Amino acid sequence: MTYNMKGAAALLVPVLLSAMLIGCAAKKPSDKDGKLSIVCTNFSEYDWTREIIGETDSANVTYLLESGMDIHNYQPSAEDIMTISDCDMFIYVGGESESWVDDALSTKTNKNMKVVKLFEAVNDNIKLEEHKEGMEEEEEHYHDEDEPEYDEHVWLSVRNAELICNDICDKLCELDSANADTYKANLADYTDKLRALDGEYSKMAENAKVKTLLFGDRFPFRYLVEDYGLDYYAAFKGCSAETEASFETIAKLAEKLDELKLNNVFIIENSSDAIAKSIISSSGNKNASIEKLNSLQSVTSDDIKKGATYISIMKNDLETLKKVLN
C-alpha cells in the first residue's frame, strides 16, 4: 500500500485531537432532541443502521463520507473528530485506511459509547490482500512489512452484511432497550432481504458460463467473488492507491483476456477507463466491452436522496454480472 492519504491521516489526527481538547470546553456537541447519535464511516454501515432503526425516529445517523470521498483517501476534520468523540455509537471498518480511529477514540468524551468494528463483526471472514498473476507490483512506503495487510472491503459480501447487521442491532438494543423489539423485528425483515439477495447471487454464479472477472482497475470485490466461487484478475489490489499500470501489467491482462476468451473488462465507479481500454487494444479481442461495478465506496448524499440503498446497488451489480457472465 503506497504512502498516500493514509499516512497523512495517521499523522494529522493527533494534531486535530489536541485542537479538539483545547476547544471542547468552549463548545461541546450535544444532542438536543434526546435521540441517539450514531456515526458511520461508510455508506453500507449507514444504510444498514437506518434499516434496523426503521421508523422509530430514535436516532440521528451521520454518514461521514456523504460527499462521496473514497474511504482510502479520507482525512477526518476537527469537526468529524468532535462528532465521533461525543456520539453514542460509532461504526467503522477497522482496516488500515482507518488507522486514525484509534487516536480518535482514545479521547472520546462519551465513555459509554458503543463501537461496531466491521473487522470484528465478520469474525474469521477477513481476508489478507493477495497478489494475483498480472497484478501491478507496488512498493510499501507506509505499511509495516511485519504487519498483515487485510482486504478492507468486507461489506461487499452479502453474507458478511448479515453478520454486521446482527452486531449493529445488538449494540442498538443495549443503548435503547425500549425499542429493542422493534430493532430485532426490523433486523429479521432485513435479514430475509439479504438472504434472498445472496440466493440470487448464488444462482447467477451457478448459471454463469464465464467464471472469471478481469479488472482494468483496483479490485475491491474479493469477498464477493469468493462467496460464489468466481475467479478474477486485476491491475491492482483492492486498497491500492495506484492509477497507472505498467506495460507488463497491461500485457499480462491482455493475455488473460485472450486466454480465457473474455468479452469484458471491468472498472469500478468513478474510475478512469484508460487502463481497461489499453488492455482491450493490446488483446486480440478489440470488441471487448468495458463494464462497471459499484463497490459502494463513493455513494453521496445526493445518491441517497435519489433512493440508493445497499441492496439496490448490490442488485444493480448483480444484473451487470448476469449480463456479462451468462
From TrEMBL:
<comment type="similarity">
    <text>Belongs to the bacterial solute-binding protein 9 family.</text>
</comment>
<dbReference type="GO" id="GO:0046872">
    <property type="term" value="F:metal ion binding"/>
</dbReference>
<dbReference type="GO" id="GO:0030001">
    <property type="term" value="P:metal ion transport"/>
</dbReference>
<feature type="coiled-coil region">
    <location>
        <begin position="180"/>
        <end position="207"/>
    </location>
</feature>
<dbReference type="InterPro" id="IPR006127">
    <property type="entry name" value="ZnuA-like"/>
</dbReference>
<keyword id="KW-0175">Coiled coil</keyword>
<dbReference type="Pfam" id="PF01297">
    <property type="entry name" value="ZnuA"/>
</dbReference>
<feature type="signal peptide">
    <location>
        <begin position="1"/>
        <end position="25"/>
    </location>
</feature>
<keyword id="KW-0813">Transport</keyword>
<keyword id="KW-0732">Signal</keyword>
<dbReference type="InterPro" id="IPR050492">
    <property type="entry name" value="Bact_metal-bind_prot9"/>
</dbReference>
<protein>
    <submittedName>
        <fullName>Zinc transport system substrate-binding protein</fullName>
    </submittedName>
</protein>
